[in-house]
Design goal:
Order of helices and strands: EHEEHHE
CATH architecture: 2-Layer Sandwich
Radius of gyration: 14 Å
Number of helices: 3
Largest sheet: 4 strands, antiparallel
CATH topology: Alpha-Beta Plaits
Number of strands: 4
């Protein structure tokens, strides 16, 4: 079952242009991963430094493998100096899980 992953970051003032380049690089890296479907980047209406990346994966195991990958860890290390706070992650199944 397809899943969406919300990755929430607060970017420091004056660092949005630098972060934008990292978002693009991270997206290109993810596109090469098994199970990757798509992603989009959203910025807050009230505070443009609040950024959410919504990525879609064929299954949660695909996301989990990418989340733990060396390439992704390297990308996240580059983000650290640009962030104001911790990164938050939320995962969602598409549709309801009725029983």
């Amino acid at each position: 079952m397809a899943v969406k992953v919300l990755i929430k970051r607060k970017i420091k003032d004056g660092k949005l242009n630098e972060a934008s380049k990292l978002f693009i690089k991270a997206r290109y890296n993810a596109m090469d991963q098994p199970g990757y479907i798509s992603s989009e980047t959203l910025s807050g209406c009230e505070d443009g430094n609040n950024v959410v990346v919504v990525s879609m994966w064929q299954k949660i195991e695909d996301w989990n493998q990418w989340e733990k990958s060396k390439v992704r860890a390297e990308n996240e290390t580059k983000f650290e100096s640009l962030l104001d706070g911790l990164v938050e992650y939320e995962t969602y199944n598409l549709g309801l899980q009725l029983k």
